[in-house]
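Morning. Coffee machine broken again, so started the prediction first thing and wrote up yesterday's gels while waiting. Chain of 187 residues, entered below exactly as on the submission form.
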Amino acid sequence: MATPESVLKDADQKMDGAVRVCHDDLAGIRTGRASPALVQKITVDYYGTPTPLNQMAQLSTPEPRLLVVQPYDRSVIPSIEKAIMSSDLGVTPSNDGAVIRLPFPSLTEDRRKDLVKVAHKRAEEGRVAVRNIRRHAKEELERMQKDAAISEDDLRRAEKTLQQETDTHVKKIDEMLAAKDQELREV
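Came back before lunch.
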């Protein structure tokens, strides 16, 4: 049978997962700098199988505005280029037969503002996910109290702890957003 501690521990783990997902989403938003995280979600059609780009190529950033994709199998270069072109990265790949270079131009002011909006939207999605986890845990605790498995005092204590965990996780998301916001506004 579930205990308030197990419900809180489960909620905490799920909230950590939501924060991780939000972190990955924010990392995938392009700033003026090249980063392997930008192509993390790109999947390439590899002999009929959608395969993540980072599993079929080595990614490196020799310069701040250049990302180099070095495929393990050179025959997939056209497929990789096609996947990059169809993504929302907004860069044009160039290849020399061995590696693909992705030059990232400086961001325009309008593009920066758009990316800030995208970052805020993704952070809000993360906050909503954390709040949904809180709601589900709270319902579980209330069900336990209704079934007389825990006392009303235990319920109040657990709800207070749950709210503190929620506030902590939302604060982490807000901090990540503030850092990304600063990074995007930097010229």
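The chain has a mean pLDDT of 87. Going to sketch it on the whiteboard this afternoon.
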